[in-house]
């Protein structure tokens, strides 16, 4: 019988893989699509806002990894994490205050594969910036493999992250 090999997180982290653009989802390796200029520009704009707004209140991780043990390694576009020392390990879901994905060609992958993993891991809140439809999809309140609350916002509208209800952010475009 032929079966695919499923990697553990530890095995995956030992593989000689490219520095960026590879994720491990439930033991399976996925190569990410190259980042386009619109995607990169929006990540830069989100990063500027998050760094300016949350300096000293939360850690901003730009296209850096975090893990959902035992078999998931993700590289979201942006993470807002608790202020902790991550030199010896990656953040885990209960330290993530907000995950942001910017999606153009990756929308189906982000919504169909990654958002359910964020929910299963217990990530409090995920925002997916949908470049194809010009909207921000908001997922809150993880329950199993989905989120109890789902919203969508248009560019220019404001929404505060659950972890910082007193700090509304404007949806960039």
Count of all domains? 1
CATH homologous superfamily annotation:
tt1808, chain A
The structural class is alpha+beta
Gross morphology: globular
CATH fold-level topology: tt1808, chain A
Output the radius of gyration: 16 Å
Q: Determine the fraction of residues in helical runs and give it as a percent range.
A: 10-25%
The average pLDDT is: 93
What gap, in angstroms, lies between the N and C termini?
50 Å
CATH class: Alpha Beta
Strand content: 25-35%
Instruction: Compute the number of strand runs.
Output: 12
Instruction: Please count the helical segments.
Output: 3
Oligomer: single chain
Can you list the strand order of the major beta sheet? 3-6-7-8-9-10
Low-confidence residue ranges: none
Order of helices and strands: HEEHEEEEEHEEEEE
CATH level-two architecture: Alpha-Beta Complex
Which descriptors would you attach to this protein?
alpha+beta; 3 helices; Uma2
Explain what you see:
The chain is an alpha+beta fold and 173 residues long. It has a single domain, classed as Alpha-Beta Complex (tt1808, chain A). Helix content is 23%, strand content 33%. The chain is built from three helices and twelve strands, in the order αββαβββββαβββββ. The protein has helices spanning 9-14, 37-54, 107-121, and strands at residues 22-25, 28-31, 59-62, 66-68, 72-74, 78-81, 96-103, 125-130, 135-143, 146-153, 158-159, 169-170. The protein has a six-stranded mixed sheet with strand order 3-6-7-8-9-10. Strands 1-2 form a two-stranded antiparallel ribbon. Helix 3 (107-121) links the parallel strand 7 (96-103) and strand 8. The longest helix is centred in the N-terminal third of the chain and has 18 residues, at 37-54. It starts with 8 loop residues before the first helix and ends with a strand. 29% of the residues are buried. This is Putative restriction endonuclease domain-containing protein. InterPro entries: Nuclease_put_TT1808, Restrct_endonuc-II-like, Uma2. Residues 9-169 form the Putative restriction endonuclease domain.
């Amino acid at each position: 019988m032929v079966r695919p090999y499923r990697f553990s997180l530890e095995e995956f982290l030992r593989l000689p893989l490219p520095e960026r653009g590879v994720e491990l989802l439930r033991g399976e390796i996925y190569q990410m699509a190259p980042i386009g200029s619109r995607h990169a520009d929006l990540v830069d704009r989100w990063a500027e806002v998050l760094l300016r707004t949350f300096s000293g209140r939360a850690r901003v991780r730009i296209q850096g990894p975090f893990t959902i043990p035992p078999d998931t390694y993700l590289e979201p576009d942006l993470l807002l994490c608790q202020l902790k020392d991550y030199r010896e390990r990656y953040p885990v879901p209960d330290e993530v205050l907000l995950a942001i994905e910017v999606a153009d060609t990756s929308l189906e992958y982000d919504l169909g594969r990654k958002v359910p993993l964020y929910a299963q891991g217990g990530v409090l809140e995920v925002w997916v910036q949908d470049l194809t439809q010009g909207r921000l999809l908001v997922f809150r309140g993880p329950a199993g493999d989905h989120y109890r609350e789902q919203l969508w916002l248009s560019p220019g509208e404001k929404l505060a992250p659950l972890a910082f209800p007193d700090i509304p952010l404007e949806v960039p475009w």
